[in-house]
Amino acid sequence: MVNKDSNSPVVFYINGEKHTVDGNSSISPNTALVDYIRDVADLKGTKVMCREGGCGACTVTAKVVDPHSGSIIHKSVNSCGYCTPGMVMNMYGLLGSKKEIAMEDIEKNLDGNICRCTGYRPILDAFKSFAHDASNDLQQKCADIEDCATCPMKKGNGVSCSQQVRTVEEKSIKFHSGQEWKTPMTLKSALIAANECNTRGVAFRIVAGNTSTGIFKNQPPTSVFIDVTGIPELKKTNVDEHGIFLGGGTSISDMIRIVREASSTPGLEYGKKVATHLERVANVSVRNNGTVGGNLMIKHAHNDFPSDVFVILETLGASIQIASLKSGHIETSSVSLPEFLRTRMDGKLIKCISVPTRLGYVYRSFKITRRYQNAHAYVNAGFLFKIQKKGESFIVAEKPRIVYGGVSGDFIHATLAEQYLEDKDLSDENTLRNALEALEKQVNPQSGALESSPKYRIHLAKALLYKTILEIIGKKTNDKLQSGSSDLDRILTHGTQTYDAGNAEASLFKSVPKYEAKIQASGEAEFTGDIPVQRNELYGAFVLSTVANGDISNIDASEALKLEGVERFISASDIPGVNDVMKYNSFRGVVQEPVFAAKKVSTHGQAIGLVLASSNELARSAANLVKVTYENVTPPIVKIEHAIAKAKETGTYARQTIGVYKTTPLDEIKVAHTVKGTCDFGSQYHFYMETQSVVCHPREDGLDIYCCTQWMEHVQHTVGMILNIPSNSVNVQVRRLGGGFGGKGTRTTFVAAAAAVATWVSRRPCRIVLDLETNMSMIGKRAPYHIPYEVGFDDQGRIGSLKADLICDTGCSSNEASIFLAMLHMQNCYKAVGWEVATHFVFTNTPSNTTVRSPGSVQSVAAIEWMMDHIANYLKKDPLEIRMINLLNNGDALVFGHGAPATYNRENMIPKIVEQMKSTADYEARNEYIKSFNKQNRWKKRGLSVVPVRYSIEYFTTSYPVSIAIYHVDGHVSVSHGGTEMGQGINTKVIQAVAHGLQIPMDRIKVKPSNSFVGANAFATAASIASELVVYCATKACEEIRENLLPILEKLENPTWEKLIEQAHAAKVNLTASYLPTGKDDLKGYDVWVVCANEVEIDVLTGEYKILRTDLYEDVGRSLSPGIDMGQIEGGYIFGQGYWTTEKIIHDENTGKLLTNGTWDYKPPECKDIPQDFRVTLISNQRNNAEGIFGSKATGEPSTDAAFGVVLAMRNAIASARADAGNTDWFQMSGPVTPEDIAMLCLTDTAHLTV
């Protein structure tokens, strides 16, 4: 048994350095590994973001001794450059766990790592270069990702960390908090420890992987943790003629390996399908640590948890051995899985699970999810049939097992269908009909705001049984129906990148490695949260509103302030200046947005105050103890349609506008037809991997603020006004951002202002790093839109009239309404003949919506593209034909421009790009193939779409100063600029430009952090223009330096760079230069042209889909850095794809609370969601862009708009399914489009399910 009086330490090694934890340590049993690594070991390379096991940022590789076999195991565990260290550690773990890896292993292994910037393709290509089946092209293209010369653990022999591994020992540690951690080494010791806790009435928790805390966060306080990972009895596994034996402590990853290997054994053939299903449970890092017994215990505690492990085991008729202690002896009992759910487990453990052989059975299981990887199920199901073939009949020889999850907490077996199907012929139409009828009687799904609709889940229950029956009867059914039996197989992704490689000798106009690539891969790139902690530093945690519409009656922080280490509570009364974050803005915010709400609260999650404490964990705990009482609470408005109705009812709708914009009709277009409809597009969270983070230090002249902002000036001047101090007392510095996407423009200032107030009143350093839930709840997102339209056109499809109303949901304020940008891009690349476009914005009780990649344009481009397809559907024409006949030409009217009336005076590049697309993307042939495919398949459908984009770039600001300094001692160069590096490669392009301008190697140049001195008055790094303008300013500064050096150069004969600089310094030549454009710089805007062809395939029965191929062509002018631009284009496209498919924002309509506030319910795309075949072509066209910097064009946002083509391709596939169902009417689709939407829009009725 565990010696409860002992206090022996836990010893482990991190990067070869010994670490010891005992009862005197400052940490607690609740300390996460990532926090220990970052805060105690002080290794900031491991990042932190979701704390749910859902993003992969904190992935590390662990080497542990298996207690049963004694072997050493490598596994990645959950502990952009922000996402890069987690990606690298995941790959490192895979390389350590297998002698030989395949490309498929890599794609599967990255199922828990999210990257918001790149679109995954370049990451996958880099990692695939390690695979034994990698192509020569991949191996040549990708350098060794571990070749990080600066990695501090890199040894001379190439070994990167210590091989020292310690076995687990039996011990007990009592912490200063009174909590205890016990590590029993035998099953009996564990049971004794659990029973002692029961006897004493002490709350205890049995832990192995402890992965459930990522899902169920609000667990009751625990006094004793009993760690069972070192118990050999729980790790035993065996495979024999009787079946598969799994110890309760077997990891899910080990279970996958065991059942796959067992599938060659007669009666265990189901193992291959089980393994495939289990590979979609959570992600690799969670599966490496989560155990089979632990997963079943989650299901035991939360019956509505859609456990795939439970469904699979119950389908196969597995039994569970439960161990308990009686009179000092271990007693075991065998129960079925349903009996297990009814068994009290206090003081008991799952010892093992026995899965029987199933010789002669057909096994099938399913998991239907919003996102293919790392997502819980809408519905999961398992089917086990024993079939006796009699002639042409398929007789069910015994009662089948039909098991469902995700329907309701108490529904497991479809007993009515099971009873009915025994002895029935599955190929008989009546059998199917009666079985589906029996199923529908029993399936009664629970409703919930985060659940798919009961109607959809009932449909899935029937559809999955139907798919299983189709598989069993095989070719007995007709060819067209057979497509219903298979899943949508996802093959390995691959991509093609086509661009002008540039001159190998030049610094500019060619691909170069990203400036920060090596330090990002090694984890040495410093982000705001990585800045070393100062002595006496305080941590801040926000107190957020729990109502969305009411008044604050009282704030009581007394309970929080009683906790040792809690220093202060900050509220609106502590602000010495203006309590308004948007008082200073480029467009002067008209609605107050307070740092802390003083009286009125307008959103659930609005900041009310800030708790300051000696640790982050303590500050968060204390914030939960602050009691806020409210009065005059009224129901919130969280949906745009309700906001519109209220605005119209109260009479404010008419004045909530930026105007109505019209163009003149043309007599030559005779409107003969009209279509009308509505576009409804939802919201989107930025999902930057680095949450909002600020570190604030008091200084003799004011404050130093280190923050992850895209807009230093906004932080600087807003903090000055809030503290009532001059701007020159506020020093802002930004090294880099872990993603921004518009969400760190003005929104970071909320956090910076709170930290500044805390530092100002406490005179101590303060740090605020938001947890993901707070970040998502507090910060605004992409604005939803509601766009009713009516379009008139002639027989050819030429638009002669168009009426639309762009209605934007701005959240609780209109300070950053994207309606202007929506209007700017509404026309896209088309003529505007007889247009009348109204604009409106409405308010909801949600955080003030802000800019998100391609703000406004994503929605308005989607609206006009939807109308084009609507016209094509009406006229029964190819949608591309309708687009081409309506294209904008030089001299045509612009409905919205810089000056009125405006006419277009540029060349439309779309016709040329479309012709290129047709010839290189096999458009015509693929269109014909899809028609044939859809005729031959009832239950799988394909769709193809083409979307053109004209993205207007205007230099509405040029305020991005650049300073360059050359050091005379060695001739090395430093650069600082007013932009912000956030993954878009601005620093890389600047170095290329400076190297080009000074004609020196790139490795002589370094970029220093941006700050509010060198970058004084700089505008936000946004709208895709900052990189270009910083390059322009850097080039101009280089020209000044070259002019300064010219007299010296003329006196020397072919000097080295060092000699030239040495002589120039001696001659008192100025070796520094700064530049900021003025009115004399004739910088003009231009258009970026994109054409994107998307092909998708859908499963009509389930609504699942995959993107088969994307061909994206973007006119980049003359790319400054093609590799950087390629990453921006691919990343922008996947960002848009996520908006239209997997990412859905849901608020509680009664409280206003954001429900999709973490990785469990909010799903950005992962690597298996990207197009299987992703082809991107950069069209070099310098002649077309004489206005751009060096002939280049912006690339960050146009491709995001083009991603709407995925929806249109889905629409075409759905239309084919609807036609088979007898309906050819036009139908509306709202974004995002989920599998539920697809399945329901296909109009599949039970009567359509035939054999």
Automatic annotation (TrEMBL):
<dbReference type="InterPro" id="IPR006058">
    <property type="entry name" value="2Fe2S_fd_BS"/>
</dbReference>
<keyword id="KW-0576">Peroxisome</keyword>
<dbReference type="InterPro" id="IPR046867">
    <property type="entry name" value="AldOxase/xan_DH_MoCoBD2"/>
</dbReference>
<feature type="domain" description="FAD-binding PCMH-type">
    <location>
        <begin position="174"/>
        <end position="360"/>
    </location>
</feature>
<keyword id="KW-0411">Iron-sulfur</keyword>
<keyword id="KW-0500">Molybdenum</keyword>
<keyword id="KW-0274">FAD</keyword>
<dbReference type="InterPro" id="IPR002888">
    <property type="entry name" value="2Fe-2S-bd"/>
</dbReference>
<dbReference type="InterPro" id="IPR037165">
    <property type="entry name" value="AldOxase/xan_DH_Mopterin-bd_sf"/>
</dbReference>
<keyword id="KW-0560">Oxidoreductase</keyword>
<dbReference type="InterPro" id="IPR036856">
    <property type="entry name" value="Ald_Oxase/Xan_DH_a/b_sf"/>
</dbReference>
<protein>
    <recommendedName>
        <fullName>FAD-binding PCMH-type domain-containing protein</fullName>
    </recommendedName>
</protein>
<dbReference type="InterPro" id="IPR001041">
    <property type="entry name" value="2Fe-2S_ferredoxin-type"/>
</dbReference>
<dbReference type="InterPro" id="IPR016208">
    <property type="entry name" value="Ald_Oxase/xanthine_DH-like"/>
</dbReference>
<keyword id="KW-0285">Flavoprotein</keyword>
<dbReference type="InterPro" id="IPR036318">
    <property type="entry name" value="FAD-bd_PCMH-like_sf"/>
</dbReference>
<dbReference type="InterPro" id="IPR016169">
    <property type="entry name" value="FAD-bd_PCMH_sub2"/>
</dbReference>
<dbReference type="InterPro" id="IPR000674">
    <property type="entry name" value="Ald_Oxase/Xan_DH_a/b"/>
</dbReference>
<dbReference type="Pfam" id="PF03450">
    <property type="entry name" value="CO_deh_flav_C"/>
</dbReference>
<dbReference type="InterPro" id="IPR016166">
    <property type="entry name" value="FAD-bd_PCMH"/>
</dbReference>
<dbReference type="Pfam" id="PF20256">
    <property type="entry name" value="MoCoBD_2"/>
</dbReference>
<dbReference type="Pfam" id="PF00941">
    <property type="entry name" value="FAD_binding_5"/>
</dbReference>
<keyword id="KW-0408">Iron</keyword>
<dbReference type="InterPro" id="IPR002346">
    <property type="entry name" value="Mopterin_DH_FAD-bd"/>
</dbReference>
<comment type="similarity">
    <text>Belongs to the xanthine dehydrogenase family.</text>
</comment>
<dbReference type="InterPro" id="IPR036010">
    <property type="entry name" value="2Fe-2S_ferredoxin-like_sf"/>
</dbReference>
<dbReference type="InterPro" id="IPR008274">
    <property type="entry name" value="AldOxase/xan_DH_MoCoBD1"/>
</dbReference>
<dbReference type="Pfam" id="PF01315">
    <property type="entry name" value="Ald_Xan_dh_C"/>
</dbReference>
<keyword id="KW-0479">Metal-binding</keyword>
<dbReference type="Pfam" id="PF01799">
    <property type="entry name" value="Fer2_2"/>
</dbReference>
<dbReference type="InterPro" id="IPR005107">
    <property type="entry name" value="CO_DH_flav_C"/>
</dbReference>
<dbReference type="InterPro" id="IPR036884">
    <property type="entry name" value="2Fe-2S-bd_dom_sf"/>
</dbReference>
<dbReference type="InterPro" id="IPR036683">
    <property type="entry name" value="CO_DH_flav_C_dom_sf"/>
</dbReference>
<dbReference type="Pfam" id="PF02738">
    <property type="entry name" value="MoCoBD_1"/>
</dbReference>
